[in-house]
Design goal:
738 residues; alpha+beta; Immunoglobulin-like; 4 domains; five-stranded antiparallel beta sheet; 40% helix
Length: 738
């Protein structure tokens, strides 16, 4: 009797499901913000709506305002025209009918948002960004059926401790011959919050107000402020970024009707405006002045730059969001040649066989070897077919990843497990495999004989699909030597990049291919017998352990409700498999009932599974005695290094088994934590469990394409990139050398 852990049908279904889920899962992810064709776009962090105010209709010479109204979730914010020490301003790209000309955003007064040692300028709660529109005589509403249709593509960076680039496409139709005043109060409030020019200024400039440069400070002197502000403490908002130290302490005073202040210049200053526009505010009302600059600006520091990959990620889609103000990181690892990358991929694939995520597939192959031990020809065909399945699957997965990158998606190795739908599908697949291994059901009991016998008639295809299954399980892992090779694929031509993926697959399949052609391996295995049935049932438990891991991963993506919903559906799926294996009246009754129950539960609970939790998983953790981990954000490491503090960054993901192993061993070691504390090392954790283009770009900047990646930054030194299997001695030596 032959025992196969999985059927040809199950593997074929799996192959189709992974291809469909991998190609279509990205539209559900939050970084996209929604490609809406209506006036409203909702993401887990904001609700954005395009609104209009036309009190006299769309007529030449009459006022017309458009505006993007953003309602933030609690603790989240977007940015002003000058975002401050980090962040990106909101950007808008308009498509309007002929005869309508759009102006600049009438920015309302922002608020100062302190984040650690930084200070940003932006908006929380609900804010409306009004934009004036001029209607000229060429506007022809009759040709537009008396309606004016406007379209807006907006991009914004929404942040809490972490930052997420988002975008939206908005369409709004405005009646040309009737008033549109339902949002009049919102526009009135937004325009009232716009800073006013100081009294006596001409086009914002007042000759007796200035900014005098004295060493590394600016001496501000402003006249023309309202009487009711005299003697009050004012807030200062510079409109030009990267000029002053936004978070530094500064002094101010009143000399009669003249407001004066001494503000430190930024050590990383990259702009030298003249005149210098500033906004002064008190009691929620702002006043704008353009100050004539007296004296010579100090020599400008080298402009902070980012890698092209990070810039592309923050401009993730057509319009993009801009760049971070983080200095470009460099890797201490020398660049690879193509030959070295191929060898590294081959060796990494070989080591991948030792990773825990591949263990369930190892058992499948052991049983397969035992079955073919006495048939050398079948043994070799099985090895070749398995190798072909592994290599072609790696090439297909690599091609999909490269294709999505070329289309503008910021993704990396293991990207498919960033989709809750793919995670849930894999959990369902391994549940069925576990139940089949445990003997709960046999496919032959409820499938047509022609389908059930496919496996026996086509063992080569069965081995091929086992290779596909191995890739599905192994792909989230990154073994030593893999990281640099996969990172190089982003810079290689397509055929060479695919060759690296093929070498990775060959490395994974190499032990089985070699064993298939070495008779001594077959002779060392026991003959088929009853022991195989025992082994088969025992292997159900590693499969169930894999399901537990996948449910935990989903919980990190969709929250506890998503994990609970998946567990309910897996129980229902198990009941369906059991019911279909029954015979006679029991099957005729139980099968329809169980299938209907599964369908109803799926209709109810699938939205909980595919929903990405609104509040991302916190990455700040601490032990009772160890140092504090903080969430990584673009530019955070560079800012800390610039202040003189070393930084250790852990690029990780819940679905990365190697990451979790390192986190529970080396990074949790008391001596390692004591070394971090002694050297005052800041600890940042970049969680890539869900799609994050900024993390993807930071990995690419380090020459990596997947996690885990560990980087130690120190002032004045090149970053140190550690091995995927993080060693305690290696890490402690690097920290001691700081």
């Amino acid at each position: 009797m032959h025992y196969r852990p999985t059927s040809l049908l199950a593997r074929a279904i799996f192959l189709i499901a992974v291809m469909l889920a991998g190609a279509g899962s990205w539209a559900q992810l939050p970084a996209k913000g929604g490609a809406a064709t209506s006036a409203v776009v909702t993401t887990p962090h904001v609700r954005a709506e395009l609104i209009a105010h036309a009190p006299q209709g769309v007529e030449p010479g009459q006022p017309l305002w458009l505006g993007l109204q953003i309602t933030h979730q609690p603790e989240w914010h977007t940015y002003w025209k000058n975002p401050g020490d980090s962040g990106l301003p909101i950007e808008m790209a308009w498509t309007l009918p002929a005869g309508l000309d759009v102006g600049e955003i009438a920015w309302p007064l922002p608020k100062k948002i302190p984040i650690g040692t930084l200070a940003n300028y932006g908006y929380e709660g609900t804010v409306l960004l009004p934009v004036p529109v001029t209607v000229d005589s060429t506007f022809a509403p009759k040709a537009l059926s008396n309606d004016a249709t406007v379209r807006l593509h907006a991009t914004w960076l929404v942040c809490r401790k972490e930052c997420i680039p988002e975008e939206g496409n908005f369409t709004l139709t405005i009646p040309a011959r009737s008033t549109t005043a339902m949002h009049g109060a919102a526009f009135d409030a937004a325009l009232a919050a716009q800073p006013r020019p100081v009294m006596g200024s001409v086009q914002g400039v007042r000759p007796d107000s200035n900014a005098r440069i004295e060493g590394n400070t600016l001496q501000l002197s402003v006249q023309g402020l309202p009487v009711e502000l005299r003697g009050k403490t004012l807030e200062l908002f510079p409109e030009t970024p990267e000029v002053i130290e936004n978070a530094a302490a500064w002094t101010q005073a009143w000399k009669g009707a003249v407001w004066t202040a001494e503000v430190p210049l930024s050590a990383q200053r990259s702009n030298s405006p003249d005149p210098m526009p500033v906004v002064l505010a008190a009691n929620g009302q702002g006043y704008r002045a353009e100050l004539k600059v007296l004296g010579a600006w100090p020599t400008v520091a080298a402009a902070a730059t980012v890698s092209p990959a990070l810039e592309a990620a923050l401009k993730a889609n057509a319009a993009g969001a801009g760049t971070s103000r983080a200095p470009q990181a460099t890797s201490s690892v020398p660049p690879l040649t193509l030959l070295a990358a191929l060898f590294g991929a081959l060796l990494g694939g070989l080591i991948l066989n030792l990773m825990p995520c591949v263990f369930p597939v190892l058992a499948i192959k052991v049983v397969g070897f035992a079955q073919h031990a006495q048939d050398r020809r079948a043994h070799r065909l099985s090895g070749i077919a398995y190798t072909a399945g592994v290599v072609l699957s790696f090439v297909a997965l690599g091609g999909l990843m490269l294709g999505l990158r070329a289309a503008g998606e910021a993704i990396g190795w293991g990207f498919q497990l960033q989709s809750p739908a793919v995670v849930a599908g894999l959990a369902a697949l391994f549940t069925l495999i576990a139940l089949n291994l445990a003997g709960v059901f046999e496919f032959g009991h409820f499938l047509p004989s022609s389908v059930a016998n496919l496996q026996a008639r086509h063992p080569v295809a069965d081995s091929f699909l086992t290779g596909v299954l191995a890739v599905a399980v192994a792909s989230p892992c990154t073994a030593p030597f893999m990281g640099a090779s996969l990172g190089l694929t982003a810079t290689l031509p397509g055929p060479q990049a695919l060759a690296v993926f093929a070498a990775l697959g060959l490395g994974l399949a190499l032990p089985y291919l070699a064993a298939a052609f070495v008779p001594a391996v077959a002779r060392a295995l026991p003959r088929p017998g009853a022991w195989m049935d025992t082994l088969r049932k025992f292997m159900a438990f590693p499969m169930l352990a894999t399901v537990v891991w996948l449910v935990w991963v989903l919980g990190q993506q969709s929250g506890i409700d998503g994990a609970g919903a998946l567990l309910i559906l897996l129980v229902a799926l198990g009941m369906v498999a059991w019911a279909l294996s029954l015979a006679g009246t029991a099957r005729r009754f139980m099968a329809p009932v169980s299938v209907l129950a599964l369908a109803l539960l799926a209709w109810t609970f699938v939205p909980h599974i595919t929903n990405v939790a609104a509040a991302p998983m916190s990455t700040a953790t601490a032990s009772a005695t160890g140092p504090q981990w903080q969430a990584w954000t673009p530019g955070a490491a560079e800012q800390l290094v610039a202040s003189g503090r070393p930084v250790f960054v852990d690029f990780t993901a819940a679905w990365c088994v190697t990451c979790q192993y390192n986190k529970k061993t080396t990074l949790a070691d008391a001596d390692v934590q004591a070394d971090f504390t002694a050297k005052n090392v800041a600890l940042l954790r970049a969680d890539w469990t869900r799609r994050d283009p900024a993390i993807t770009a930071a990995l690419a900047q380090l020459g990596r394409s997947g996690v885990p990646v560990y980087v130690l930054h120190a002032p004045g030194k090149a970053p140190v990139v550690f091995s995927e299997i993080l060693g305690e001695a290696e890490l402690r030596a690097a920290v001691a050398a700081l």
